[in-house]
């Protein structure tokens, strides 16, 4: 596999590890989809995590403006799922540091650990495993900016936009593969429901 794996290579890896599944799924927000993705199932294996994080780092490094910032750049994950990728990307880039946001319970605002704040003008690369709804990425981006940091790029293993996925500003977005699952807003408009296909509820 190349240092920057192709879309086909990434999808094959996800399918091989059971991280990408096809069927009829309903998400907690009510969206119905023909695919379900859990990148963590692929990242259980260190060699796969390294393949994905190094490939993603190469895409970031190809940008000359970002490449010039690397020595002082922070790599930040918006959730636990992105932490392994953030560490892998930080190691591959040899960036300054890596940290992440968290919340005590679902629905509460994201925050950083006590006594931790961004340095004024700190350059931040946001890293996650999946960019789907963009809810947590949006929250942590706003949090960083409110603390005086600057989000200079976003890097995710998989970009799987939904009809509700927001645009997160002018910072460049990098991803290894884009998945275009078929989404329906509810059961009434879902083609898979009309076909009578069994539905599986997923947590995230």
Description:
The protein has one domain: Rossmann fold. It contains 7 helices and 9 strands. The chain is globular. Helix 3 packs across helix 5 (about 85-95). The strands form 2 sheets. Strands 4-3-5-6-7 form a 5-stranded parallel beta sheet. It is an alpha/beta fold and about 200 residues long. The model has no long low-confidence stretch (mean pLDDT about 90). The protein has helices at about 5-15, 40-45, 45-60, 65, 85-95, 135-145, 190-195, and strands at about 20-25, 30-35, 75, 95-100, 125-130, 150-160, 175-180, 185, 200.
Short précis:
The chain is of the alpha/beta class and 204 residues long. Helix 3 crosses helix 5 (83-93).
Characteristic terms for this protein:
single chain; 204 residues; alpha/beta; Rossmann fold
Total strand segments: 9
Q: Which stretches are low in confidence, meaning pLDDT under 50 for 5 or more residues running?
A: none
Order of helix and strand elements from N to C terminus: HEEHHHEHEEHEEEHE
**What can be said about the biggest beta sheet?**
5 strands, parallel
- Radius of gyration, in angstroms, nearest whole number: 17 Å
Q: Give helix % range.
A: 25-40%
The side-by-side strand order for the widest beta sheet comes to: 4-3-5-6-7
Give the number of helices.
7
- Which outline best applies? globular
> Can you name the CATH architecture?
3-Layer(aba) Sandwich
- Domain count: 1
Which fold does the CATH topology refer to? Rossmann fold
């Amino acid at each position: 596999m190349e240092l920057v794996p192709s879309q086909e290579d990434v999808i094959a890896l996800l399918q091989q590890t059971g991280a990408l599944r096809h069927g009829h799924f309903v998400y907690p927000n009510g969206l119905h989809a023909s695919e379900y993705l859990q990148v963590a199932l692929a990242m259980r294996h260190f060699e796969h995590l390294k393949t994905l994080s190094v490939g993603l780092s190469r895409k970031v490094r190809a940008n000359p403006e970002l490449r010039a910032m690397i020595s002082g750049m922070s790599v930040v994950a918006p959730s636990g799922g992105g932490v392994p990728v953030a560490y892998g990307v930080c190691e591959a880039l040899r960036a300054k540091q890596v940290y992440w946001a968290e919340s005590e319970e679902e629905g509460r605002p994201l925050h950083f650990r006590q006594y931790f704040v961004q340095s004024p003008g700190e350059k931040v690369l946001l890293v996650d495993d999946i960019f789907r709804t963009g809810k947590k990425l949006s929250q942590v981006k706003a949090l960083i900016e409110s603390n005086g940091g600057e989000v200079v790029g976003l890097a995710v293993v998989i970009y799987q936009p939904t009809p509700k996925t927001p645009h997160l500003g002018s910072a460049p977005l990098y991803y290894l593969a884009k998945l275009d699952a078929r989404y329906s807003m509810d059961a009434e408009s879902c083609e898979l429901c009309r076909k009578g296909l069994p539905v599986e509820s997923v947590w995230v």
